[in-house]
Amino acid sequence: MSVQDIQTLRKETGAGIVAVKKALDEAGGDIEKARSELRKQGMNVATKKGDRDANDGKIISYLHPGDKIGVLLVLNCETDFVAQTQEFQQLGRDIAMHIAAMSPQFVARTDVPADVTSAEGSVYRAQMEQESKPADVIEKIIEGKMEKFYQSVALLEQAFIKDTDKTIQQCIEEVILKLGEKITVGEFTRYEI
């Protein structure tokens, strides 16, 4: 465990020195394992902050080069102080750019209307009924197809275009860890000519 490793992890995660040292100790000095552990802790922090109200924030706009695609995004946080930080605003720009590129239809899977989910499931079921596979295998395939469907239409479940190893939700959780406040995507609108 070197001072450089500690500084690198602190900068990446926003975690305190004690937390970084503990993660590195538990990972046996393996920076990747420590990074993963700190990321998990960040998710725990995000979960704990989930009960708080995020009544402040910013409306962020993004205009894609060529001026044919634009996005308006409401990104919420708890205080105006956090809304003014560079990290919060960069997160908003990154999410807005992602929306422009990937065109999600909903913020979260829970926002997908039941009739849309049902119709999608029916299409997959009809496709699978033509296969001569056992019913339990068909159900697993349909579950997998529904997961991919949610990942394609729900913003929070999509792989971030700048780093496909992370979802948008994980990007938000990393900023929550750094800033110490609840952050949520309120809503968004994507325009295209």
TrEMBL record:
Gene3D superfamilies: 1.10.286.20, DNA helicase RuvA subunit, C-terminal domain (1.10.8.10), Elongation factor Ts, dimerisation domain (3.30.479.20). Pfam families: EF_TS. One of its GO terms (cellular component) is cytoplasm. It comes from the Bacteria. Keywords: Cytoplasm, Elongation factor, Protein biosynthesis. GO terms for molecular function: translation elongation factor activity. It is found in: Cytoplasm. InterPro entries: EF-Ts_dimer_sf, Transl_elong_EFTs/EF1B, Transl_elong_EFTs/EF1B_dimer, Transl_elong_Ts_CS, UBA-like_sf. PANTHER family: ELONGATION FACTOR TS, ELONGATION FACTOR TS, MITOCHONDRIAL. Belongs to the EF-Ts family. This is Elongation factor Ts.
